[in-house]
Amino acid sequence: MPDFELGEEYQDLVDTVREFADEVIAPVSAKHDEEHSFPYDVVKQMAEMGLFGLPFPEEYGGMGGDYFALCLAIEQIARVDQSLAITLEAGVSLGAMPVYRFGTEEQKQRWLPELASGQSLAAFGLTESEAGSDASGTKTNAKLENGQWVINGTKEFITNSGTDITKLVTVTAVTDTTTRDDGSVKKEISTFLVPADTPGFKAEKAYNKVGWNASDTHPLTLKDVRVPEENLLGVRGRGYANFVQILDEGRIAVAAMAVGAAQGCVDEALRYAKERKAFGKTIGEFQSISFKIARMQARAHTARLAYYDAASRMLAGKPFKTQAAMAKMVGSDAAMDNSRDATQIFGGYGFINEFRVARHYRDSKILEVGEGTTEVQLMLIARDLGL
Questions:
Q1: If pLDDT is split at 50, 70 and 90, which confidence band does 2 have?
Q2: Distance from chain centroid for Cα 187
Q3: In whole angstroms, what is the distance from residue 381 CA to residue 208 CA?
Q4: pLDDT tens for each residue of 182-240
Q5: Catalytic residue status for 145
Q6: Of residues 58, 156, 371, 375, which has the active-site annotation?
Q7: Residue 92 to residue 98: CA distance in whole angstroms
């Protein structure tokens, strides 16, 4: 039987990050959400704790941990602030991880120590206006000219792409096309490391989002952006395949974030139900409320087991794509359902942004969309069943 009991080192990490989230992150979350401001001071403290280096070897400036440790940290942060949880998730699993997984030794030595330290952030430039789940819609292109790749195109919804500490964006681009016998066009997609200060690279005005308001998200424009030939990341033509691997891993981290959000809603609802009185007793004494919170807890627990399972398979070198898809889908469902129920329990206060459940209600919707929509997860699960 699988053992889902955390070992001492994992539990110590959970306790440390949970305390940090409650004492440092939570008191300023409402302020940054209202102001739509990036919490540089908190991110700096997260960096000093080594959170951005958790899954990387010490030789590259990391903490020598693993991907599961990263997920545990993300879960604890997401309980109180999804914006900071996605900042960590995107900075590590989407920003730095491609360099670690596919980079040359020179690329790793150049970028990983800075990214693992949290002093700088990296972003993941995949999505375009007509290309996300469907890579065939990619229009950004790169041409090799005199030892340099010249990149032109646009990207959409890119997290961590426009902060003062953003130093690198990994970009997918079409490097060749071939016409099949049926007349359709096959695109060769490759991946490039683009330093954020490269001429022609521009993070456009930040989005005005429904949620994740303290997370940095921009559309990007690349106009005649020139990077050295050696900035090709991985093998030419393997760009999309490599990013699919990164997304499979990232779905486990997003599932952990969703679990954190779901658990945060349980914690808030439980506290409120024990304090709020109506008709002469606390509302938690009413079966309609106690059963609702019990169901919320069951959702969070089930979703947690799903991402634990996916992470354990990944670390053991076993296939985990389907398990990651299920964990991401179940987790995002739990976060969305729990935030709705918590808002209902809070009544009018649940509709006030300064209350955490209101922020979870707004923030959780994107969990059903980012890093693969729920429909994509269902497609992957069905495909694994042979349908």
A1: low
A2: 27
A3: 33
A4: 877 889 999 999 999 999 999 999 999 999 999 999 999 999 999 999 999 999 999 98
A5: no
A6: 371
A7: 9
